[in-house]
Amino acid sequence: MYSEKVMEHFVNPCNVGEIENADGIGEVGNEKCGDIMKMYLKITAGVIEDVKFKTFGCGAAIATSSIATELIKGKTIDEALKLTNRAVVEALDGLPPAKVHCSVLAEQAVKTAISDYYNRLGIDPLPIVGEITEHCEGNCSNE
User: Fold this and answer.
1) Using N-to-C axis directions, what is the helix angle for 100-120 and 59-72, rounded to 10°?
2) What is the pLDDT, as a whole number, of residue 118?
3) CA pair distance 122, 135, nearest whole angstrom
């Protein structure tokens, strides 16, 4: 059901924890899904120097959080903003259809943390990050 990469990132997730004095923090989730992700960013000169996450949810939620942090660490903000849920799924060698919403949640956690970063700088994030919409539309399951 799950790829080896999903299982590896679930059993041995990368970048777990939180960053004190983070430059941006994004928390997304939905009680219907049962998955809640919180991402912490440390940004220097427009580059994501460090990223950590805390996720409450299923194995797929933990795996997508882990791989998302790996995909954006060391990248510029602009590069991180190009992260899509499809890229997260591909990096994990696929997800079952009922778990694809977790990849959307990971993408949104990154974008929410970047939005928070811009808000802290007094910059309106909407023109840069875009609107972040609710990821779960009744097709979620936390099985």
Assistant:
1) 50
2) 98
3) 26
Both structure tokens of 78: 């602009």
Catalytic residues: 33, 102
Cα distance between residue 40 and residue 18, in whole Å: 6
Question: What's 15's DSSP letter?
Answer: S
Residue 18 CB coordination number (10 Å): 12
Question: In this prediction, what percent of the chain has a pLDDT beyond 90?
Answer: 87
Residue in the structure block whose two tokens are 């079952």: 96
Separation of alpha carbons 81 and 5, rounded Å: 23
Tokens 């998302």 belong to residue: 68
- Nearby residues of 4 by Cβ (< 8 Å), 6 or more positions away: 93
Rounded to an integer, what distance in angstroms lies between the CA atom of residue 115 and that of residue 121?
10
Q: What tens digit of pLDDT does each residue of 58-96 get? A: 999 999 999 999 999 999 999 999 999 999 999 999 999
Element (DSSP H or E) covering residue 63:
helix 59-72
